[in-house]
Write a structure and sequence with these properties.
About 45% of the residues are buried. Helices cover about 50% and strands about 10% of the residues. It has helices at about 5-15, 20-30, 30-35, 55-65, 70-80, 105-125, 145-155, 170-180, 200-210, 225-230, 255-265, 265-285, 290-305, 325-335, 365-370, 390-410, 440-460, 470-485, 490-500; strands at about 35-40, 45, 135, 160-165, 185-190, 215-220, 240, 310-315, 355, 380-385, 430-435.
């Protein structure tokens, strides 16, 4: 059966299911609160408040079987060249787990282990020096993952090394990051796979000049020669990247050097261990008990069955406030495709727009639209069971809000006053971490990574290229001479706007 036919069946299932309110589906199947839940190590997820029933779930899992999810997961771990448009293996799993006997996967894992040994040595050198601050310079996958991890996993007080992040090419960003830092006690890490990324090169030059030279510059790159030539960084201060790891999947590699500097190498390796635990579960567990399969198929159901165009991610832990930023790139750069791997048009909508923020702050901003707006927005709510802060009353209030919002989304509330009526029927998934540790954090991110890949299989698209990022960069390069007054633009609107900017 073709993907198109299977997705058409999903739409038929959705037409049947939506005749029954979510509240009714839950009331008529009280066992779903238990049966629609899974645990993997420190991660528990409950899908009981998603707007499907058991028959619809059977159709979803049949769709997964039809595209050979299990076999294609094995191909990912084995290092098959599943990135067809670029002819590359996709082996971010080999950075953290050793679950394949395929030679290419074994070789990749060996390279990753050797890189971690070198990374540990550099962490120890910096921690034993008089350096107090490190500026991490990168953008996209070279920034979002490390930035999220450092923010989520750093303790309430400063660690031995304070890590700061600089990504935006806007010079005000560099000005703000460097304000208050001492160049004599600061090091910088320049992260770029090709060492050709405009933002990183420009900001790297600012850091080099501000530091007064290159002796406290480090790099992470697949292009050691260019890093050495451009910034005179010696090879012993350059950690490797590889073309079999995409940028948005790279925080498990030496791109995670800033993470290790902030939280320590042992904690970084605990993060890898959490991801490895999720890898083993996803690879070896039948689909109906597979957490990544449930998550991915739920996303497909909400997009293609119910037609929802956006997806919220709402962590009820301030330390995860950057998760939505990270997932925007992971999910939307991976799945924002309109052609299949064979070049033919996709026959269904692909990725929704991902957005969100941390509760309880967001309850006082956009939750009004989620509760009573005309568009239904499915949501992943993420909670942490055990608090690390010593304020028990606050943690109970946080949990009360977390539970209340998901209940209110699903059940709504009737009222004779239409302004005070809540329709309910807003679907959500609850994800609970036992505690926010490097291990649970790694498992959570790996869950989302695998969910993204499984969704791509259903839609028949390549989750591992990102050609859509390139066009704007190419046009920007052509326009730099025009902004310097050395040329003009071909586009008439751009010519008019150039006059405003030059003025």
């Amino acid at each position: 059966m073709s993907n198109h036919a299977s997705l058409s069946q999903l739409r038929a299932q959705a037409g049947r299911v939506t005749r029954h309110p979510l509240q009714k589906l839950i009331a008529e199947d009280p066992a779903r609160a238990r049966d629609f839940a899974l645990r993997v190590g420190p991660v528990y997820a409950n899908f009981a408040r998603q707007h499907y029933d058991r028959e619809a779930l059977d159709a979803l899992f049949a769709l997964a079987e039809a595209v050979d999810v299990s076999g294609r997961l094995q191909a990912l771990f084995d290092g098959a060249k599943i990135n067809l448009t670029e002819g590359r293996s996709v082996l971010h799993t080999a950075l953290r787990s050793d679950l394949s006997d395929a030679p290419v996967a074994k070789q990749a894992h060996t390279q990753a282990v050797e890189a971690r040994k070198r990374m540990r040595q550099l962490v120890e050198v910096l921690a034993g020096s008089d350096i107090t601050d490190v500026v991490s310079v990168g953008i996209g996958g070279s920034d979002l993952g490390p930035r999220l991890a450092v923010d989520a996993l750093s303790g309430p007080g400063p660690g031995r090394l304070r890590v700061h992040f600089l990504s935006n090419v806007d010079g005000h960003a560099a000005q703000r990051v460097l304000a208050g830092l001492d160049p004599a006690r600061t090091a910088a890490v320049l992260i770029s796979k090709t060492f050709g990324t405009q933002e990183t090169l420009l900001n790297g030059a600012i850091l080099r000049d501000w530091l007064g030279g290159t002796e406290r510059l480090y790099a992470v790159s697949a292009n050691v020669e260019r890093a050495a030539k451009t910034f005179a960084i010696p090879a012993e201060r350059i950690l490797p990247m590889w073309d079999w790891v995409g940028g948005r999947y790279s925080l498990w590699s030496a791109v995670g050097f800033p993470i290790a500097l902030a939280i320590g190498m042992d904690a970084f390796e605990q993060m890898l261990a959490g991801a490895a635990e999720m890898d083993a579960h996803v690879l070896n567990t039948p689909l109906k008990q597979n957490l990544a399969a449930w998550h991915a198929l739920t996303s497909v159901w909400n997009r293609n069955g119910l037609g929802y165009a956006t997806q919220a991610v709402l962590p009820y832990d301030e330390r995860l406030k950057l998760l939505s930023n990270y997932l925007q790139q992971l999910v939307m750069e991976s799945l924002g495709k309109s052609v299949r791997t064979d070049g033919s048009p996709v026959e269904a909508d692909t990725v929704p727009v991902w957005w969100g923020g941390a509760g309880t702050d967001t309850q006082h901003s956009f939750f009004q639209a989620l509760h009573q707006g005309t568009s239904i927005v499915p949501a992943d709510f993420i909670g942490v069971v055990r608090a690390d802060a010593p304020y028990a009353d606050n943690h109970r209030a946080l949990h009360a809000n977390l539970l209340a919002q998901t209940e209110a989304f699903a059940n709504g509330q009737s009222s004779d006053d239409p302004h005070r009526a809540y329709a309910g029927g807003r679907p959500s998934t609850m994800i609970l971490l036992d505690a926010l540790t490097p291990h649970s954090f790694g498992a959570l991110l790996a869950l989302y990574e695998h969910s993204v890949y499984l969704q791509s299989l259903v839609w028949g698209i390549n989750a591992f290229d990102q050609f859509g990022v390139e066009l704007g960069k190419q046009v920007a390069s052509r326009l730099l001479p025009a902004l310097a007054g050395q040329a003009d633009a071909d586009d008439p609107v751009t010519r008019e706007l150039l006059q405003r900017l030059r003025g």
